[in-house]
Design a protein that fits this description.
Blueprint lengths: L2 E6 L7 H14 L4 E6 L1 H4 L6 H18 L7 E4 L5 H10 L4 H5 L2 H9 L6 H15 L5 E3 L5 H18 L7 E3 L29 H9 L20 H9 L2 H12 L5 H15 L1 H11 L2 H30 L4
Helix pairs in contact: 3-13, 4-7, 4-14, 7-8, 9-12, 10-12
This protein binds adenosine-5'-triphosphate and magnesium ion.
Length: 325
C-alpha cells in the first residue's frame, strides 16, 4: 500500500473549506492508502493563540475528523507534538532548505502581512517542518487544498536535495486536490481560513448556520432579485454542488439563470441540504465529545503507531548523514 500523509492545524474549528478541500478526500483515500493524519499543533503555535484553548482545540479537531469519517483503525490519527521526530527531521531539512525558496512562499507572505507584529522564524520555516511531517513517513501522496500545493512542491525539492547530498532515502510526494480545492469565505473574496474568521464551522448549531449562510456572498453580478445569476460564478452554488442532489442542483441552476428564484431561496435550500448531509457527522461528534478519554486514547495509540515509523526513518537519516553512533 502506498503511504499518504496530511495534516490540519488546531488553529480553530474545522470548517467547510477544510472539509471539501481536504478531509473528505482523506476519508475516501484511507481505503486505498496507508494513511497518516496529523493534527499539527507545532505549526499552529506560529500564529497567536490562547494557551488555555489548545487542548480543547486538539480534542475537537480529533472528534471532528473521526465524526467526518476518519477511521482510526485504517488511518493513523495523531498529534504532531507527541512525535518529536517531526522537529528533529525539520532541523536536518533546514540544512537543505534554501532561503530563496522559503522567501517566495505565498502563505508566508500572506500570513506575515496579516500578523506584522509577530513574523516569527517558525512562520518562515513552516514549509520545512511540513516537509519533515510528510517525509518522515515517506508519504507518496499528500491530499491538500490548493493553498498547500506550493508547500508540497517545496517538499519535493527537499527530498531531491537530501537524496542528492546524502543518498537516496525519500520519495518525491505528489499533491492531490479534491474537486473543491479552494473554497472562498463567506465574503466571497478570500480563501475560507480558520485564521481569517470568514468560515462556516461544521459544528455550528443549525440556527446559526442558517444565519451565516444567509449572509454569504453570491454572484456579484446579480444585484437585484430580477437579475438572472451565474451559478458558475457563485460560492453558494459551489457548496450546493457538494451537498445537494441532482434534482435540487437542477432547480437551483434553472431558477438562478432565469431569475425564477432569488438568492434567499437558494441559500435556504442549501442550508437544508447541508444540515441533512451533516446530520450523521453532528451525531457522531456529540457522541465522541461525550467520551473525551476515548478520543485521547485513540490519539495516544496513533502517536505510538506513528512513532514506530518515525524512529525508523530517523535512524536511517542519522546513518545517511554519518552522525555519531
Ligand atoms: P489557518 O488559517 O490557520 O491556516 P486553514 O483554514 O487554512 O487554517 P489548515 O489547517 O491550514 O486550515 O489546512 C488544513 C487543510 O485544509 C489543508 O490541506 C488546506 O489546504 C485545506 N484548506 C484550508 N482552507 C481551504 C479552503 N478554503 N478550500 C479548500 N481547502 C482548504
Ligand atoms: Mg492554512
Amino acid at each position: 500500500m502506498k503511504r499518504l500523509f496530511s495534516g490540519i492545524q488546531p488553529s480553530g474549528e474545522l470548517h467547510l473549506g477544510n472539509y471539501l478541500g481536504a478531509v473528505s478526500n482523506w476519508v475516501k483515500l484511507q481505503e486505498s492508502y496507508h494513511s497518516f493524519i496529523c493534527i499539527v499543533d507545532y505549526h499552529a503555535i506560529t500564529q497567536s493563540y490562547d494557551r488555555k484553548d489548545m487542548r480543547t482545540r486538539v480534542l475537537h479537531m480529533a472528534a471532528d475528523l473521526m465524526a467526518c469519517g476518519i477511521d482510526p483503525e485504517r488511518s493513523v490519527l495523531f498529534v504532531q507534538s507527541r512525535v518529536p521526530e517531526h522537529t528533529e527531521l525539520c532541523w536536518i531539512f533546514n540544512a537543505v532548505a534554501q532561503y530563496g525558496d522559503l522567501s517566495r512562499m505565498t502563505q508566508f507572505k500572506d500570513k506575515a502581512a496579516r500578523q506584522a507584529e509577530n513574523i516569527n522564524v517558525g512562520l518562515f520555516d513552516y514549509p520545512v517542518l511540513q516537509s519533515a511531517d510528510i517525509l518522515l513517513y515517506k508519504a507518496q501522496v499528500v491530499p491538500v487544498g490548493e493553498d498547500q500545493v506550493q508547500h508540497v512542491e517545496f517538499t519535493r525539492r527537499i527530498a531531491r536535495g537530501f537524496n542528492r547530498r546524502w543518498g537516496k532515502l525519500f520519495p518525491e510526494p505528489d499533491a492531490l486536490l479534491s474537486s473543491t480545492p479552494r473554497l472562498l469565505g463567506l465574503d466571497g473574496q478570500a480563501k475560507m481560513s480558520k485564521s481569517m474568521g470568514n468560515t462556516i464551522v461544521l459544528a455550528t448549531p443549525e440556527k446559526q448556520i442558517r444565519k451565516q449562510l444567509s449572509r454569504a456572498a453570491t454572484d456579484p453580478a446579480r444585484v437585484k432579485r430580477e437579475d438572472p445569476g451565474d451559478p458558475d460564478n457563485c460560492n453558494v452554488f459551489t457548496l450546493h454542488k457538494f451537498f445537494s442532489n441532482e434534482e435540487r442542483l437542477g432547480w437551483v441552476r434553472d431558477g438562478c439563470t432565469s431569475a425564477g428564484i432569488g438568492c434567499v431561496d437558494c441559500k435556504r435550500a442549501l442550508a437544508d441540504s447541508m444540515l441533512d448531509q451533516l446530520s450523521d457527522y453532528r451525531r457522531r461528534r456529540e457522541e465522541l465529545l461525550a467520551e473525551p478519554e476515548k478520543v485521547e486514547r485513540i490519539l495516544a495509540e496513533g502517536a505510538e503507531r506513528a512513532s514506530a515509523v518515525a524512529r525508523q526513518t530517523m535512524e536511517q537519516v542519522r546513518d545517511k548523514l554519518g552522525l555519531w553512533r
